[in-house]
Write a structure and sequence with these properties.
Number of helices: 3
Order of helices and strands: HHH
Largest sheet: none
Helix content: 55-70%
Distance between the termini: 101 Å
Oligomer: single chain
Length: 142
């Protein structure tokens, strides 16, 4: 009877140990899967960041090239085209000098400020304020 109870307890204990080992293995396997997914995600993020950096570099190069093109265009025509145009175009007509404009009028004088009216003394204002409320009934005593 005692040996049978001991065997039963050992079987229960062995079952619990197996269950605990299975849970530990499952937890470790899930942890590894989570790590693998995180690694994949981070790899994707790094690749996306590298693509973004590459794109920004290409756009920077394009904008620099566009700026250089604009600088070249802003200098005007190349010399050989300018010489051909100058030979074909009639000489410019002499323009008469512009007449001298009269000097601007002097600035207008600043207007003089009118003097302010003197302020009332503070005591009079307080007395008037008291008088304003004397005829108001705040509550009915009826």
């Amino acid at each position: 009877m005692v040996s049978q109870e001991i065997q039963q307890l050992r079987a229960t204990l062995d079952g619990l140990v197996r269950e605990q080992a299975d849970r530990r293995a499952l937890r470790e396997r899930q942890g590894e899967e989570i790590k693998a997914r995180a690694q994949e995600y981070m790899t994707e993020q790094v690749q996306a960041a590298e693509r973004y950096v590459q794109l920004r570099r290409e756009l920077g190069k394009q904008s620099e090239a566009d700026e250089e093109d604009e600088e070249l265009e802003s200098f005007g025509e190349p010399e050989e085209f300018a010489e051909e145009d100058a030979a074909a175009a009639p000489p410019p007509a002499a323009t008469p000098p512009a007449p001298a404009s009269p000097p601007p009028p002097p600035p207008a004088p600043e207007p003089v400020r009118a003097a302010r009216a003197p302020r009332r003394p503070a005591q009079e204002a307080e007395e008037e304020d008291d008088d304003d409320f004397l005829n108001i009934r705040w509550r009915d005593d009826d």
